[in-house]
Amino acid sequence: MITSRDVARLAGVSQPTVSRALRGDQRVSEATRERVQRAADALNYVPSETGRSLSTRMTKRIGVVVTDLTNPFYPHLIGPLHDELEQHGYRMMLFTERSETAVASQRLLDRSIDGVVLATATVGSRLPDDLQRRELPFVFLNREAGGQPADAAVVDNELGGRLVARQLAELGHHDIAHIGGPADTTTGRDREMGFRLGLSEAGIGLPEDAVRRGPFDFDTGYRALTELLAGPTRPTAVFCGNDVIAIGAFNAARAHGVRIPDDLALIGFDDIPMAAWEAFDLTTVHYDLAELAQEAARLLVQRIDDPDDEPRRTLFTPELVLRGTHAAR
Amino acid sequence: MITSRDVARLAGVSQPTVSRALRGDQRVSEATRERVQRAADALNYVPSETGRSLSTRMTKRIGVVVTDLTNPFYPHLIGPLHDELEQHGYRMMLFTERSETAVASQRLLDRSIDGVVLATATVGSRLPDDLQRRELPFVFLNREAGGQPADAAVVDNELGGRLVARQLAELGHHDIAHIGGPADTTTGRDREMGFRLGLSEAGIGLPEDAVRRGPFDFDTGYRALTELLAGPTRPTAVFCGNDVIAIGAFNAARAHGVRIPDDLALIGFDDIPMAAWEAFDLTTVHYDLAELAQEAARLLVQRIDDPDDEPRRTLFTPELVLRGTHAAR
DNA sequence: ATCGGTTCTCCATACGTATTCATCCGGCGC
DNA sequence: GCGCCGGATGAATACGTATGGAGAACCGAT
């Protein structure tokens, strides 16, 4: 393996000079810098990231914690996140939070990363506390965990739910159902809360047996809608906790011969690109997903640069996108 | 920061003993091991991954190179890949190969990873050569790059294309089109080649203006089908280079009022979960995507353990899944 | 010629862990 | 009581880079 010593020997300088020259330190003369650069090129030298990390105590790596990668929602966060982090000189390590075991959190705490993006926080989670105790900077993306105030890039989920409620009320719906995300996620909880508030402002109730909850995935929507259709009072409208659930519900509707939007209005949340496909043409709640991820990256990078700043929470304002899956009653 | 020295001091032993004790080295007595373990627990000690890497010259990290994360295909590779790598004690770093600049490949060659999974190889790419020159183990996943023989987990794309051709021939189609992937990918090339061969065996031609090519994404399918529908001879069947293209084409068909499968047969490739959704019910070429990714992980881990083994190429056999997007002419 | 002040380079060392080799100890056989 | 053996531990060092402070070389001014 080629080290900075080899380069130093070839260039006839010391190892520290190589280190400084290649990083553009002003204290190295132009002539020396060129000589070193030539030697480095000749040897195809690439500085060891590990050596550098040990010395600087920075790894220039960020851990990103998600649960299920195959959920179509996350790639739309991870993609922009990756690019934004790269722009700031950071690379991305992926972690799945399947089981929040001690072992798993060890892997975050072994100083192999400079910070963490929590994209799938749950309300009871101990992970944020662990990170705080270790002084490992982190930021919430999309969901929060309650508890201590911390950096976060999130959507005004309550407002989003409220917008949907108003729209459905305006369209004349009364028998309304909700297929929401898990109760221990802020996205699940707040969207439902806003929806309930919006409905009650319009004088519409949301009985508990018209509410289903589950993971933010296709199956949740598929199964829950199947159940709702089999129930005593068929809803005429369903608000889904996110687009992936809505698309699950959409497919269940099709499987049961229920026409959308004539028989059933369906509204999602997130406006992932798939929602706009002709096959679905899903009415949903829009916000800038890429911008959300980028903001999280920026917040985290700033936190790393300045650990003692006040926590900052960026709240994105959602808006309703009216497409083809809603209709008047 | 807590180091092994702190643990050593508290336990009343030397630093090397801490290192040995915590890793279960047999040469440490049971009594000492317990004492060290208690001290480590008391201090919440987590060994520094960086220090360890510098010493062992292994990082237990694998780089995964993809192009576009938001393409719905890749998550189905990355998810199982992540899990399989984790089982072998490796973590995953994500790289995007947007521009194959020198800088980008530096990031792979700085010894911050023990191996690379190339999921989006292109035929002309210099990257595999660079890796080989640096003796950095790598494996091709899904696509190959031609050139030197190397470890690879791939599907028999030619057979897959041939299966589709036979099926369409059997259904009586004559005016057939193909919307394929890029010509510089083995998946694009070989699927098209197999398709051509299969068609010609059945005495059916595939004129060049019935073939469109582009990235394996939604837009390629959408745009290409729109063009084909506007052409002089409308095809009655289209074979798409993968499911994502097929779903793009599906949506274009819907946008133009073309009924599937009555007006147009549509066949994809990969059988990603989305293909089975009722909304699409896509006839496609199936293989075990998760197993493919896992095999790539296994091949890479073995290569790392044994750098001088013969290169191994695992070829998965695809089969046609008949769903609802094909019909007899 | 001496001095002060730059400018450039090097020496020494730090970072945290793993490993090689030496050492120490007790126990055993003769 | 001597030597030997094996088990357990410690001292020294390696891994590759970055950095603080010291030193060398050079310049211009006096």
From TrEMBL, chains A, B:
Keywords: DNA-binding, Repressor, Transcription, Transcription regulation. GO terms for molecular function: DNA binding. Residues 2-56 form the HTH lacI-type domain. It comes from the Bacteria. This is LacI family DNA-binding transcriptional regulator. The lineage of its organism: Bacteria, Bacillati, Actinomycetota, Actinomycetes, Pseudonocardiales.
